[in-house]
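Standup notes
- DV: blocked on the single-chain target, sequence here:
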Amino acid sequence: MTNSPAFEATLGKAFPRHIAIIMDGNGRWAESRGKARIMGHKQGVEAVRETVRCANKLGMTSLTLFAFSSENWRRPEEEVSFLMELFLLVLGREVKKLHKNNIKLNIIGDCSAFSERLIKKINEAQALTANNTGLILNVAANYGGCWDITQAAQHLAEQVSQGKLQSSDITEAMFAQQLMLAEQPAVDLMIRTGGDHRISNFLLWQLAYAELYFTDTLWPDFGEQALTDAVAAFLSRERRFGCTGAQVRAWMNDSKQG
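- DV (later): unblocked, structure below
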């Protein structure tokens, strides 16, 4: 079987290099314990810490966490305000730990909707960790997959209107370079906690060939064991990338013999 180098490189990397997580269930975790929803968000921060530690220990290239979607502004004002303050607090507390562990922080999404105080914290955190060479921690904040695709189209349309580019020249690869996470590996595994089976406008383009893993575990209860269980499930699957299972198995056998 003849394959492109990109196909072989993709198949040759069985362990997930890039995991994306929809962190769902904070509010339900709190309500099931008779607590205010905001307590679930507080507890969810510890799950983030443990997940980042585990991803770093496993040697992953990228971890993307869906912290706040563009649709989350519809939640009660009190909850949204709390989430913004929690974001500020976590940035202040955690960024030095990330830096110490050689982790690069990358905030993706439309930050223009945030307060000047939060934008300043985001910029400072990203600047501090900019040259780190370990795990890239992407935090999606005020992010939506539709927004991501739209802003990419707008950038290319602007180049066309300026005469720098012909519309017929636009390729999938060129379009992908305008998206968030353009310089990082494609998402291999998407995990959603909390029991719902949908991707909720998260990384619509980047999830094209990702394996999807859904768990009933609520986010505050997610940790190293839950993450390694998800990775184990991923490793048990056959990823075909449009080919047949027989083709993939033949390629893998040839690689082992070679």
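- Follow-up: Residues 1-12 have pLDDT under 50 and may be disordered.
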